[in-house]
Every structure is written in structure tokens, then in C-alpha cells.
Amino acid sequence: LVFCxxxxxxxxxxxxxxxxxxxxxxxxxxxERSLLRELEEIFSTISVPxxxxxxxxxxxxxxxxxxxxxxxxxxTSQVPGSISCPDRYIWSSVLSSRVADGVRVRMRxxxxxxxxxxxxxxxxxxxxxxxIPLEAPVPEIVVKSVNSRLYHPKHIxxxx
Length: 160
Hints:
Number of domains: 1
Order of helices and strands: EEEHEEHEEHEH
CATH topology: VC0802-like
Largest sheet: 4 strands, antiparallel
Number of helices: 4
Strand content: 15-25%
Radius of gyration: 17 Å
Shape: globular
Strand order of the largest sheet: 4-5-3-6
Number of strands: 8
Helix content: 25-40%
């Protein structure tokens, strides 16, 4: 099983036709509950931007769950094709949290992958432009491989 920071899963009960953002806000060990309370407070203050008056309802709050080393957040946009609502939650967690160390966004559903060709095929499905502008420098890529034939992190990172 290969984990890159861009993998994720579609939570149960989520409409697959609406944009979903799954991200993990990381923190120091032992501070997960504090981070959860802080994120609940931060996310409760997010409102609809004035440029979208037709969608005057506040966005649905993300589902939050404590994971080892952080809080996993899943946000579904109410508007097909729109990712602005979930992205506001991501940026708010980065800019407003005092406890968070960072944010890892899962860029595609989690899937087991044991062959290079399969990994290459899965990565073609990622909408990179939604996360990284083409003119931006290539970000640092961190790979973690667990019980996989694809075991060398630098080799896997070349595919990404």
C-alpha cells in the first residue's frame, strides 16, 4: 500500500457528483483534541462570500474526526463544479489556527497500488491545476510506502 500526501477516500454518504475536499490539519502529538475544538470554532465563523449572493446559506460545516497527529476534515461543496467553499475551510485552518502545524490535502481517493503503471494511471486522474498553478515551482513531495512492492520513496516521488 502506497500513501502519498495526495491520496484520500470518499466518505460514506457523500454525493460523488459534488466536489469533496478531504484534508488533515496536523498538530503535535497530544494536541489533537485542542485542535479539534479550535477548528470547530474557526469553521463556525466562515460565511458565504458576497460575490455569491445566490448561495446565501452558510456552507455546511466539515465533518471532523481526530486522527493520530491531527484532525481529518471532509468538506462537500453545495454547488457542482465549485471548490471555493471547501478551500475556504482549508485556508482558514492554515491562517487562523494557533495549534496547527500544517495541512495535507488529499488530492484523490485512497486506493491500493502495487505496480508503477497503475500508479502512473492513478496520478493522471489528479486535477493538479486545482491545487498547484502551472507557473508555480514544483512543491516538495513526501511519500510514505507501507507493505508495498513500490517501496522506494524517491522512486515513487518521480511518478508524482
